[in-house]
Write a structure and sequence with these properties.
The longest helix has 14 residues, at 30-43. The protein is an alpha/beta fold. Strand 4 (114-118), helix 6 and strand 5 (142-144) form a beta-alpha-beta unit. It has two domains: 10-29 and 96-221, 3-Layer(aba) Sandwich (Rossmann fold); 30-85, no CATH class. It has helices at 30-43, 50-54, 61-67, 77-85, 101-110, 123-133, 157-166, 180-188, 203-208, and strands at 17-20, 27-28, 96-97, 114-118, 142-144, 173-177, 193-197, 213-215. The chain has nine helices and eight strands. The strands form two sheets. The chain has a six-stranded parallel β-sheet with strand order 5-4-1-6-7-8. A two-stranded antiparallel ribbon has the order 2-3. Helix 3 (61-67) crosses helix 4. It starts with 16 loop residues before the first strand and ends in a 9-residue tail after the last strand. GO terms for molecular function: sugar-phosphatase activity.
Length: 224
């Protein structure tokens, strides 16, 4: 079954693989993540500009803490991330699938397109999101999580690892990303088609970040 007959956007025609970001692309987790950072910063007595929070979107928290100047300078980055995670409240901000995400993954698999998750999140979070929240774990050929590569997005290592796990050239793949660091990672890995998902960042921000195309969400990549 080809992509079009499987009910997919023609952009997937001729592609062997789909490399999919998780947070903000497949699941609506950013409200919970941002609230956790705000709560942790308040608990530490850090009154920070909201722009600081945006620096953490799509990236490994430990790497942002290590690279971004702030009141945490000199502190252990792993301990800082653990502090943020302790403030996650999924009762107040439940994790929900982004409309169309699960169906897109099912149709990609049905069309014979290999699917890999490429996320800055850890393995436990990824397993929960694709298994319990989306219910599509069996449709993924590979999960590339924070533990898989020494550096995270915007470095190309995660997307290179995703393509390698599927046994395809990055140029034969499509990537879906909702943040500029994620776009940069996919573009620098030479992924053939990089589609921005404007669930958080604006369409123009994603285009300026290098996206070849921008859609509002996964549902816009489905066809009747």
């Amino acid at each position: 079954m080809g992509p079009v007959s499987a009910g997919l956007d023609p952009a997937f025609a001729g592609r062997r693989a789909a490399l999919l970001d998780l947070d903000g692309t497949l699941v609506d987790s950013e409200p919970a993540n941002q609230a956790a950072y705000r709560s942790y910063f308040m608990a530490r007595g850090w009154d920070l500009d909201p722009e600081v929070l945006r620096e953490f979107a799509g990236r490994r928290g430990a790497e942002v803490f290590a690279q971004l100047p702030g009141p945490w300078a000199g502190e252990d980055t792993t301990t800082l991330v653990e502090g943020v995670l302790a403030h996650l409240d999924h009762d107040a901000h439940p994790l929900r699938p982004i409309p169309g995400a699960a169906e897109l993954i099912r149709r990609l698999d049905a069309a014979g397109i290999l699917v890999a998750l490429v996320t800055s999140a850890g393995r436990a979070w990824a397993d929960h999101a694709v298994g319990d929240v989306l219910g599509v774990r069996e449709h993924f050929a590979a999960l590339v999580t924070a533990e898989a590569t020494p550096t995270g997005k915007p470095d190309p290592a995660p997307y290179l690892a995703g393509a390698d796990a599927l046994g395809v050239a990055p140029s034969d793949a499509v990537a879906l990303e909702d943040t500029v660091p994620g776009l940069r990672s996919a573009l620098d890995a030479r992924v053939g088609l990089v589609i921005g998902i404007s669930t958080g960042a604006s369409r123009q921000t994603l285009l300026d970040g290098g996206a070849h195309r921008v859609v509002a969400g996964p549902a816009q990549l489905l066809r009747p």
